[in-house]
Amino acid sequence: MRLALINRTGGLEFLEDHIRAACPGARLEYWPSDAAREAEVAICWDPPDGTLADMPNLRLVHSIGAGVDRILADPTLPDVPVCRIRDDDLAVAMGEYCHWATLWFHRGLDAVTRNATAGHWHRFEQRPASQVPVCVLGLGDTGRHVACRLRDAGYPVRGWSRSPHDIPGVLCHAGPGALPLAIADAQVLICLLPLTPDTTGILGHATLSALPPGAAIVLCSRGEHLDRAAVVTLLRSGHLRGAVLDVFPQEPLPADDPLWHEPGVLVTPHMSALAKPRRIVAQIAENLRRLDRGDPLLNRVDRARGY
Amino acid sequence: MRLALINRTGGLEFLEDHIRAACPGARLEYWPSDAAREAEVAICWDPPDGTLADMPNLRLVHSIGAGVDRILADPTLPDVPVCRIRDDDLAVAMGEYCHWATLWFHRGLDAVTRNATAGHWHRFEQRPASQVPVCVLGLGDTGRHVACRLRDAGYPVRGWSRSPHDIPGVLCHAGPGALPLAIADAQVLICLLPLTPDTTGILGHATLSALPPGAAIVLCSRGEHLDRAAVVTLLRSGHLRGAVLDVFPQEPLPADDPLWHEPGVLVTPHMSALAKPRRIVAQIAENLRRLDRGDPLLNRVDRARGY
């Protein structure tokens, strides 16, 4: 089988040895090239619009991550199956990151580290976790894991998603109409939504100003979920306490971007949950075997829903 | 009953209303005063040497915290019972702080926040918790809770204490001879020991240099446990990755202390676990009732052990 590695900005070489080991019979080509154009399987992160439509033998598009928004955004995307990665380790890593960020705000460590740079000793009031409601937007594998982890740590957890979910001990809300209720008392708002036309810009002025005063946000989904001007305005007005931002429309965030130095913002380098290359490739290899045998593919994306 | 509030640097007024509410029949005096000298119960944090010996009616010394090292350090301490506070909420708060600090090092957030101040985007390798052994020194109520919490988060946890403990899923070591073994593979070393003559300076050059390269320390016990020169030397040599320090021999740490700005050190304002005044006073009030009735006192300190 012929495989093409496709990404707008390249950088997929880290997968090559793993693919050669897991798929010994496959031919591996890098986009852009004529050979890549002839491939039957596109292994991609962010394929430029039209790239996939220009592959006459294409039978499968496989994302190398949990998200497929960059792939589905191509209006010329041909009608072949699109699959994504699902990885329990990703959920665990995301749980660690979100738990860390929740403690950063809950225990005042954002202010304490700021004070430390000025040699300023100030002890803040200590609140129990039970007085710090957290809302998780997006209740897929990862969101569910994060919600349960924070619930187990003693936080009152609310969840919100497109379709109804039932998670013991988590107050789950569903649908656009329920968003204001889900976030009404959130001291920490964690965004783990898939990026779809419905969720683009969901963290805009209306949503963020509906949070209680002093709330903080943690963005681990996609940069396009956040209205950057709104968050800066609400940080400067004091309505928001802070923002831990791990994802951006353009990554890496340029060194001269003022967000790095916006008071209350912590920029992290899209590090919240990284899939191991071996794991990614094992799932792709399994789907290649299934494609070969005509068996149902794993983790196939519902293109209407967008994930 | 006459009660005296005694602390070298004052500042115990925050307890007054709670004591008046919980002990309506008691007379409350502040040291230094003749009336305080006549009290039968000394409620203290850090009484100057000789203060307690100069109280002819003294029947009970009650610490307002979990630690009694400042009280037992007085060579003239009279032979009356010494009691301390035990508070499950303290253990929970300490668990949060130590978990936060462990994630800070484990997920490279120490380096990420440093990079953020320079607008520098760099993603570090993501290690699973199972590859980050943590050692907890001190396995009292608090140490045990911290060890269990980190174990449940997936870290391989080792514990060390003076006397043997058995904690499921935690590799427990006991006694001075076992310290090198307990810390041999620790990527994060958390100190929660009581301060006694045996533990003073325990985090000196010998112990810290026996940690594996790249290890970090989290100090939540007493400043006197740490040899400050040793930690600075080993941070500068690169042997230690970092240090989160919450306690210091002199608190507040003076604004001009160079530790605030030592690369790799994060100073926090003795905030890891604060007892609620209401909780402290409820335990003291219960012991006053017991003293009155001649019943056994709660949380009485073994003066030979020091806790």
Description:
2 copies of one chain form a homodimer. Chain A folds into 2 domains: 2-87 and 275-293, NAD(P)-binding Rossmann-like Domain (Rossmann fold, 3-Layer(aba) Sandwich); 91-267, 3-Layer(aba) Sandwich (Rossmann fold), CATH 3.40.50.720. Chain A contains 10 helices and 12 strands. The model of chain A has no long low-confidence stretch (mean pLDDT 96). The first copy, chain A, has a 7-stranded parallel sheet. In chain A, strands 2-1-3-4-5 form a 5-stranded parallel sheet. Chain A is α/β, with parallel strands linked by helices. Chain A is elongated, with a radius of gyration of 21 Å. The longest helix of chain A has 19 residues, at 88-106. In chain A, helix 6 (141-152) links the parallel strand 6 (134-137) and strand 7 (157-161). In chain A, helix 4 crosses helix 6 (141-152). Chain A binds chain B through residues 89, 92-93, 96-97, 99-100, 103-104, 106-109, 112-113, 115-117, 119-124, 126, 128-129, 153-154, 251-253, 255-257, 260-261, 266-271, 273-274, and chain B through 89, 92-93, 96-97, 99-100, 103-104, 106-109, 112-113, 115-117, 119-124, 126, 128-129, 153-154, 251-253, 255-257, 260-261, 266-271, 273-274.
Brief characterization of the structure:
Chain A is of the alpha/beta class. Chain A has ten helices and twelve strands.
